[in-house]
Amino acid sequence: MQKEHVIHGAWALAATGAFVLGGLGKGDPSDSAAGSSQAGRAADGGAGAGAASVLGAGSDRAGAPVAAGADGPGSATANGGAVALSDSQIAAISADAFSDPNPLRRSLAFTKLLEGITPENAQTMLQAMRDGQPSGDQWRLFLYAWGGVDGAGAMAYAAENLEGDRLQRFQDSTLTGWASKDPTAAMAFVDSIPDADGGAEQRARLMNSLIGGLADYDIGLATDYTFQLAEAGNREAGRYLYTIASEQIRKEGLDGGIAWAENLPDGDLKGSALDTVAGRFVNSDPEAASAWAAQFADASWGARVIEEVGDEWAERDPKASVAWLETLPQGAGRNEGTYSAFREWAQRDAMAASQHLVDMPDSAAKDHAVRGLSRTIAARDPQSAIAWAETIQSDAMRTETLTRAGQEWFRRDSAAAAEWLSTSGLSAEAQEQVVNPPQRDRRRG
After folding, report:
1. How far is CA 92 from CA 29, 321, 379, in A?
2. Domain count across the chain
3. pLDDT tens digits, residue range 306-316?
């Protein structure tokens, strides 16, 4: 199931596409899209995971975030201790990194190049990168490394030399590296962006890059910062928890991710974190994941966990998923999970899903199951979808499901759909929606 917790990975793939479409041969770092913390980990190895201090636990970096500049400008290199590379060394290593016919030697040389970056030689290395015409991933690694040794300097260079989308893409990649080494300064940079002249939008766009870098540095710090954003009214905080949860799982494994998410304060943010964990868990062991997820069935913020497990399990074994959902107490989690599970089941075997529905007693969960079945089969068999939709007990849900099925029928056979519509019992508003269907909606919901 494509949900928010895959955004971080899709973002990295989109960035690669941006390089290809944007003219890779020009070798311009500003053609880089948002730098994911995945790229940063390849260059830096990432930080060890730590429990969020909202849980009362300590930091994995043995204390508070470093002061601005502690890992920044100066003689520090990307690996924290290697000798800085001279201009002649950069030229020689770059030749190997971009021209050696052996891909392993190219990779090793490129790693050596990034390990030797300093505030003083970064722009020399930038020119070598341009001359070498590296891949999109290499640009992101370079900008991550530059941000790590001199985030302020890299941002100043970008502000002076780039503008528009090129500036934004450069900042996205660099900020993640900066936050992974000097979180205090990186946070201050983002916080200092004024609201005027599109600054509020810029700050919002940079936030996911910042969170990714903070999670590389310290899970606890990233978690605390995200909770602070939520308290300040940031509506994207839940999405940031997906990024942090994915990083915690990478660092500490699934068990570490579960422990971290379970110990967050109850509420919607905890639901976002658990949702990400549930997606990983159910794909590895659906039976164990379902037993674990059942504890959240009664919590309002736990509904998304039940829905995630039900949906993902249904992609593999819809009958088993539905059987599990039917053991849960009535509530939002069971309802949403049942809807998603029947959507998956109907895609695989609409007849089997229909036969199961015949024997289900009337309930809110059955209404959601019928809605899921109807939504799935409407495009290929709108009349059957309508017949099923008419059995829904909830007036609002029945109207919504009939309207969607009617729109599919109208697209296929407007005359037949219009004849049905006259006796459908739908309101004038709903009938208007049927005869004026929107562009085909490929979203699930």
Report:
1. 21, 58, 60
2. 1
3. 999 999 999 99
